[in-house]
């Protein structure tokens, strides 16, 4: 089957960049990304490519080349569905905040709405591709909806989970470790799989394209994120041990990372992992395990989340402790709000929860982040419902100049590992803050020896309280 028209429902962090690269590498295929969010689509269509709704290194250049040629962004969902032979579903699947499975299960209402809209509009056979991260056996639910439309249209459901890391998403798409495609083991299923394989094979070697059944593909995505998050929580657990024993977590991480059986990736101690995937997917895994009565399996994976929450809480508690057990009325400067560098995504960012804990202690916070907007920061805090929006705006200020952010600060907390933080004039910053000058490095981005020579009271995650030189 030769695909000529592709539709992607959802123009977010996955749908936008993924379809942009697919369009770049398949100029003969028309790709239309649709979303009911008019503001988001307008941003994707902005004449100034610096105003794209998502910041990712290299994304602007990809969109610039493909948009208007064979890449289009639209709010006309039904037209795009009708024209497409292949439809990607790339909508949000947040953790449920209500009803059965609240706080753990994935909320599939947007998936169901997408499936019902496809069923309503489709007049020709379609291949429907799950791009969103979904619980195992969601494909069956989608198929049940699509197969009971009564209009005689045939559907094939594929699972094609994304394995993108925000901040490197474009490179991950251009040169992936693997592409995973799951489908039915019938002749029609194999034909649908091959149609999607052919799209990826225009720039990815077939050895890197894995094909499985649908269930293995769906579960593999959850498991991949769970394993990565487990590594972060594991090294963060060791970071606390390092702080009280005289060890340095960076040295421990390097030592164990050189073991070829372990490897160095995701072994950087920090204030905790964030992002849209890790916590959501582990909670989903926990819920699935519990729903099948696998309580020991659920408890094992839930501990990864417990450790991550603990790391954020103890970082905030350490700030309060070092500032003489009170931050009431004190100005704390946050460097970074995004959950990691090279992205403007703040979902589940550690900064949100550290800020919330300090605000509970009546601190006043000033935030500098090079890519995150003021509106986004306030929205993150308002979403917690810990205090009123008015109080959040009274206690939290957002500035666009890091040096202004530090003026008369009682402490500086580094929450995101932006490279530019290393290049700041820290001597200038030292002269403008209240003494003693405290720096709490939640990402280990600064050189401890240099900071102490400048006069800072410098504390980093995973560095022993007995170690005065790093």
UniProtKB/TrEMBL annotation:
Listed pathway(s): Nucleotide-sugar biosynthesis; UDP-alpha-D-glucuronate biosynthesis; UDP-alpha-D-glucuronate from UDP-alpha-D-glucose: step 1/1
Alphabetically ordered keywords of this record: NAD, Oxidoreductase
Family of the protein in this entry: Belongs to the UDP-glucose/GDP-mannose dehydrogenase family.
Entry coiled-coil feature ranges: none
Cross-referenced Pfam families: UDPG_MGDP_dh, UDPG_MGDP_dh_C, UDPG_MGDP_dh_N
GO biological process, one term: glycosaminoglycan biosynthetic process
Enzyme Commission no: 1.1.1.22
Gene3D superfamilies, A to Z: Cytochrome c1, transmembrane anchor, C-terminal, NAD(P)-binding Rossmann-like Domain
Reactions it catalyzes: UDP-alpha-D-glucose + 2 NAD(+) + H2O = UDP-alpha-D-glucuronate + 2 NADH + 3 H(+)
The name this protein goes by in its record: UDP-glucose 6-dehydrogenase
InterPro entries found in the cross-reference section: 6-PGluconate_DH-like_C_sf, NAD(P)-bd_dom_sf, UDP-Glc/GDP-Man, UDP-Glc/GDP-Man_DH_C, UDP-Glc/GDP-Man_DH_C_sf, UDP-Glc/GDP-Man_DH_dimer, UDP-Glc/GDP-Man_DH_N, UDPglc_DH_euk
Domain UDP-glucose/GDP-mannose dehydrogenase C-terminal positions: 333-448
């Amino acid at each position: 089957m030769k695909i000529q028209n592709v539709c992607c429902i959802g123009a977010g962090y996955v749908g936008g960049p993924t379809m942009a690269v697919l369009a770049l590498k398949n100029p003969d295929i028309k790709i239309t990304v649709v979303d009911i969010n008019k503001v988001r689509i307008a941003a994707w269509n902005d004449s100034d490519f610096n105003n794209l709704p998502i910041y990712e290194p290299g994304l602007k250049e990809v969109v610039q080349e493909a948009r208007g040629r064979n890449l289009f962004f639209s709010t006309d969902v039904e037209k795009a569905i009708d024209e497409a032979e292949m439809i990607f579903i790339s909508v949000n699947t947040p953790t449920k905040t209500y009803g059965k499975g609240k706080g753990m299960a994935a909320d599939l209402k947007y998936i169901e709405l997408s499936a019902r809209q496809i069923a309503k509009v489709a007049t020709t056979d379609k291949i429907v591709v799950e791009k969103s991260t979904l619980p195992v056996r969601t494909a069956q639910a989608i198929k049940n909806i699509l197969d009971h439309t009564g209009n005689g249209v045939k559907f094939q459901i594929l699972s094609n989970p994304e394995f993108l890391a925000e901040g490197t998403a474009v490179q991950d798409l251009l040169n992936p470790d693997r592409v995973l495609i799951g489908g039915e083991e019938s002749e029609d299923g194999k034909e649908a799989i091959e149609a999607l394989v052919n799209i990826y094979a225009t720039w990815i070697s077939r050895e890197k394209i894995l094909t499985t059944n649908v269930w293995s593909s769906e579960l593999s995505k959850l498991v991949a994120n769970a394993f990565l998050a487990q590594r972060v929580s594991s090294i963060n657990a060791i970071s606390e041990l390092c702080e009280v024993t005289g060890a340095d977590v960076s040295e421990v991480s390097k030592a164990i990372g050189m073991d070829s059986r372990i490897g160095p990736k995701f072994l950087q101690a920090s204030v905790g992992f964030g992002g849209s995937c890790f916590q959501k997917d582990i909670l989903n895994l926990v819920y699935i395990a519990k729903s099948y009565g696998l309580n020991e399996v659920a408890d094992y994976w839930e501990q990864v989340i417990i450790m991550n929450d603990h790391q954020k809480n103890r970082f905030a508690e350490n700030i309060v402790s070092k500032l003489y057990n009170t931050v009431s009325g004190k100005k704390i400067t946050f460097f970074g709000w995004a959950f990691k560098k090279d992205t403007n995504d703040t979902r589940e960012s550690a900064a949100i929860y550290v800020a919330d804990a300090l605000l509970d202690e009546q601190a006043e916070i000033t935030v500098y982040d090079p890519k995150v907007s003021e509106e986004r920061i306030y929205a993150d805090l308002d979403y917690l419902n810990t205090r009123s929006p008015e109080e959040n705006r009274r206690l939290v200020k957002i500035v666009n100049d890091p040096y202004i952010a530090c003026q008369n600060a009682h402490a500086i907390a580094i929450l995101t590992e932006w490279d530019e933080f290393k290049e700041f004039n820290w001597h200038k910053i030292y002269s403008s803050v209240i003494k003693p000058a405290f720096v709490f490095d939640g990402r280990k981005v600064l050189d401890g020896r240099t900071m102490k020579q400048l006069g800072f009271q410098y504390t980093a995650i995973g560095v022993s309280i007995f170690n005065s030189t790093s």
